[in-house]
Amino acid sequence: MLLEENKKYWTNRTMGYSQVNEKELSSSQKEKWLDVITRYLPGDRKNIKVLDMGTGPGFFAIILAEAGFHVTAVDCTESMLNRAKINAGELKERITWVLSDAEKTGLESESYDAVVSRNVTWNLKEPEKAYREWLRVLKKGGVLLNFDANWYQYLFDDEKRKGYETDRKRVKEQCVEDHYTCTDIDAMESIAKKLPLSSRCRPQWDLEVLNSLTVSKVKSDPDVWKQVWSDEEKINYNSTPMFSIYAIK
Q1: Is 68 left (phi over 0), alpha (psi -120 to 50) or beta?
Q2: How do residues 67-99 score in pLDDT, each as one tens digit?
Q3: How many C-beta neighbours within 10 Å does residue 226 have?
Q4: Residues 6 or more apart whose Cβ sits within 8 Å of residue 208
Q5: Is this prediction's pTM over 0.85?
């Protein structure tokens, strides 16, 4: 079953992924990400309820709770949530932790002012169902803010494959850590081949889906990666730039 295969991969990946988040939390990436997110969340932070969907080791949940937002963090992997709580430290008690799936959270309808997510949608078996669920839990006028990329599209596109291989050469030439080969790439590629968004052209797909749903406004920013990625990320993922999706219910 794809869902169980996916959960097993991310359970095994917990510590490695957490190290990435911990590095971000101790660097300027923390401020860069917070600046980008809070541009879309105006108002009194202590009155804004944010749902961090697919929190992983907790990066978004931690920086938003520290900034004064009321945060609920959701992940389908128990080991990720446990690690996120450790990473949160004293902030742990200020964050509500929920073990649940992105496509069916079980959370109350129209209960959040914002839903944020990073590198989650591509990894879902039913991404359109997830978008419907995220909009369901948003209040009227609430903000959906999703950051993602065309991860593993190189498995289906020859030009993307060339770009991916060029990135790997550049990583080696510039002596930085390879963010692909330091993971169980065979396992992830096996999963990615079965996921619907690996072969889709995004963010066009996201815009089309959201425009067909209950949103009053939706737009994308294909250059957000320039604002939030570290130099090392830019070298690793040059052929797969991160975009953002901003929608208002």
Answers
A1: left
A2: 999 999 999 999 999 999 999 999 999 999 999
A3: 11
A4: none
A5: yes
